Amino acid sequence: MSTSTLSILSTLPSADYELLDSGDGEKLERYGRVVFRRPDPQALWKKNLSLNKDWGNAHAVFIRDGRAADWNIRPGTPEKWTINFGGLKFHIRPTAFKHTGLFPEQEGNWNWMREVIKKRLPKQKEINVLNLFGYTGGASLACAQAGAQVCHVDGSKVAIGWARDNAELSGLKEKPIRWILDDAVEFVKREVKRGKKYDGILMDPPAFGHGPNGEMWKIEKDFTDLVEMCSQILSDKPLFFLLNGYASGYSAIAYENNLQALLKKYGGEIEKGELTLQESKSGRLLPCGIFARWSSK
Predict the structure, then answer these.
(1) pLDDT digit string (tens) for 270-281?
(2) What does the alpha-carbon distance between residue 106 and residue 85 come to, in Å, rounded to a whole number?
(3) Could you tell me the pTM of the whole model?
(4) Which CATH architecture fits 11-92?
(5) C-alpha–C-alpha distance, residues 4 and 262, integer Å
């Protein structure tokens, strides 16, 4: 019988990453030995740790002043460094959009995809996965590590270069990963025409963005059409379809509704919910996005 469940996925503190504290519209995180202080509108509560001793000693602080925004970085802080996270290795560095090159709340999804792929592999020789809006490669590397052949698509040349570096750091340089610099919508349109099929598809689209040739993406206009096109390139016996929403502003139920057609066609199950980070000292959860994922069981 087809099912749908609601879940909260939480990334716990680890040796090279932890959410130290959050509150008053900010979060305090440690990546290796470097501590970041960044804005986070979901942190609608009071901070627990000391403003001077803990928050005041961050190595890098992202500051917004009107329309201007930039990092205030303490002298001696490395430009980039490597951490171990989720069974992989990543280069970390502060970027202009307050990001660090890693979304640690995705660890639960990586583990889920690994499990789904490994479960099918003894029965199926080759598993093909498509990762749209692939960023710095965490999901692509997790799937390749589990034994899948991966097509990683992103509209940023910088992000793809970063992802390739992470693959090499993680010992996955020789794994079958295709790195594609392209607009996600245009790429999928061509895959439909070519008759290409994938056993697993995932995407984490922004609310707004541009492709490498200036193609405009607006989630309220383009999301549903992209999901529908992706359903056309699923294989006859697909494994999974994962939708992530970091800054979409929508409910996980809205994402789940886009997967109902797969439930009717293939059976299986849908899981939806929130992605969170657990504070290392208080155990409090910081919401970081939504997800909905279908699997064939």
Answers:
(1) 999 999 999 999
(2) 11
(3) 0.95
(4) Sandwich (2.60)
(5) 12
What is the pLDDT confidence band of residue 96, given thresholds at 50, 70 and 90?
confident
Rg (CA), the chain: 19
**Domain ranges in the chain?**
3-9+103-295, 11-92
Residue with tokens 């990586």: 110
Question: Distance between CA atoms of 271 and 154, rounded to whole angstroms?
Answer: 26
Residue closest to 172 by CA, chosen among 267, 69, 51, 87: 87
C-beta separation of 277 from 12 below 8 A: no
Q: How confident is the model at residue 215 (pLDDT cuts 50, 70, 90)?
A: confident
User: 113-140 pLDDT, tens per residue?
Assistant: 999 999 999 899 999 999 999 999 999 9
Look up tokens 């992000």; give the residue.
159
Phi and psi angles of residue 243, each rounded to the nearest 5 degrees, phi first: -115, 125
pLDDT band for position 1 (cuts 50, 70, 90): very low
Q: Can you name the CATH fold of 3-9+103-295?
A: Rossmann fold (3.40.50)
Assigned token pair, 162: 């970063």
Between the two ends of the chain, the Cα-to-Cα distance in Å is: 11
Tell me the three state secondary structure of residue 47: coil
How many residues are there in the chain? 297
112 phi-psi bin (left φ>0, alpha ψ -120 to 50, beta other): alpha
Does pLDDT of 212 surpass 90? no
Which residue, among 276, 278, 205, has the nearest Cα to 246 in the 3D structure? 205
Find the DSSP H helices in the chain.
107-120, 138-146, 157-169, 184-194, 219-232, 252-257, 260-266
Structural contact between residues 195 and 189, judged by C-beta atoms closer than 8 angstroms: no
